[in-house]
Records
---
Amino acid sequence: MKSISLSGSLRKGVGKKDAKAVRKQGMIPCVMYGGEKEYHFLLKETDIAKVIFTPETYLVNLTVDGEPHTAIIQELQYHPVSDKVLHADFYEVSEDKPFSVLIPLKYVGTSKGVLRGGKLQKKMRKISVTGLMKDIPDHIDVNITTVDVTTPFRVADLNIPNIKYKDSDRTVIACIQATRNLAAEEEVAEPEAEEAAGEAANA
């Protein structure tokens, strides 16, 4: 996985009044759990934006008052009107302990169904995976070359070793929506197939 380094400072207060005050100073209240102890700390709003407003998923090399940690963002709370980040939860991870994280999907190739006039529907942009740090990739390629009306791309078609998926094997990742052009092609193909079958039966 790609990584990014952030530096935070321990929070002195943890109440709502304190949180409101630090937000006015451009800081975001955060908590980190999953390790030996829980940390309440502050990050600059501009720094945490580097991790949030991107399609990538990052491991965060997080330094809190001089102590190094490795973590992922577990949950974010946003303001209901302004959409500004109000709070961030981090989950501390280690090299020898499996953890779950959302990984971006990158679609590659041109599907058979699109070449026939259909429309590609991307059902998922990211997928939840569980594995060790060394096994989790930056992203997962979805080769859509064979995707057609009757042959969607499912979770079972992903081939990443040592990785488990939260979604079931039959969950559709990408499929083809039939358009008028494709429907017309199917209507022409069906009589031709029936005619060929009839000729074979009479032969």
---
Amino acid sequence: MESSAPKILLRSLLFSYLLSGLLLVAASFALYKFRLKESQVKIAVNSVYLLSCALAGFLMGKGLGRRRFFCGFLAGLSYFLILLAVSFVLNKGITSDTAQLLTTLAFCTGSGIIGGVSS
């Protein structure tokens, strides 16, 4: 019995956000314990994005079994858009500059594609 694409996407995003939560807790513990610099924290957060979007792309590509490049792209883009929407609501606007937003978009979609293609 094959699941529908939206259901597979939602399941993939759920697991990727669970992974994000666990990795961000670990990163915050490292920040507290080792007093990391801001540049090191940015690297950790970008690594969380990369791993989480790759997982989402992998799970979506594996779940559908076809068009894996597009599945990975869609998973990474969806992850980014949800992240942007939540950030917009919590901060009452967009506080990041355009370069940072485009970099995060590239990280999310690129790693989603890598995850989708490797599934």
---
Amino acid sequence: MSVGALCMIGPACIGLAASPGIAITLFCVGGFAHQMLNGALITLCSDVFESRTVATASGMAGSAAWIGGMLFTYTIGKSADVFGYDPLFVALAAFDLIGAVVLWTVLKTNPKTKTN
């Protein structure tokens, strides 16, 4: 999760790209990083929750992700006409970095993840 979030800094710089090739490369890094984040987070439920609640936690996380994605798409669709797409890529990186900090904070305080 942390490596994926750090890789999202590249796409945040798409607006600064000097050539289309660099912009495409940064966009590809962002796609790869986003899939790293998804892969790490989809398996996290089985590591954090008890086996009888994994499906419920995974379903609730998926529902929250879908609602968040829908709202984000609506918001970006409305604001892209006004501000362009550069703020979108910066926001994606910022949200992923914030998400990594929140995840580490939550995992640090979760009693099940502590070792003896």
